[in-house]
Amino acid sequence: MLNILIPVDGSEQSLEAVRHALKLVGMGLKARFVVANVQSTANLYEMVVAHDPAVLNKVNEAAGRDLMRPAVALLKAAGQQVEQEVATGDPAQMLVEILERHGCGAVIMSAQGSGDLRAAVLGSVSHEMVQRSPVPVTVVKPAVVDADD
Q1: What is the pTM of this model?
Q2: How far apart are CA 63 and CA 57, in angstroms?
Q3: CB-count burial class (<10 Å; 0-12, 13-18, 19+) for 75
Q4: Is 143 exposed, middle or buried (0-12, 13-18, 19+ CB in 10 A)?
Q5: Residue 120: pLDDT above 80?
Q6: What's the CATH number for 2-140?
């Protein structure tokens, strides 16, 4: 059975990757899924205010789990096996570490998510994953809306 990593950021676009994975399952693919979210590293203000790294870790964990909830719900509603992981740091680096730790043989992710200025300047996480991942990466483009509809 293939372990597939699905990175999500809480955006509707990241749910498109989950829907694509479920289409593949519907066509007969036998898979287990690892849904992951990578939180940004705390900034100086957050570190000064929190005083305790454990507090920041708890906040990141809670935020990541909340952002993963819709993706996990879709997969579980379809009867799929799902593991979840929240990490903090550079998104592409952390996602590669997660896929290696879980023995994933593939990644399915959206072409764009909620993003930030850093992603716009340095390139998207999906582009970095295509470059850095040791396993195949399927990039799911957002659905095109027809102007005539």
Answers
A1: 0.83
A2: 10
A3: buried
A4: exposed
A5: no
A6: 3.40.50.620
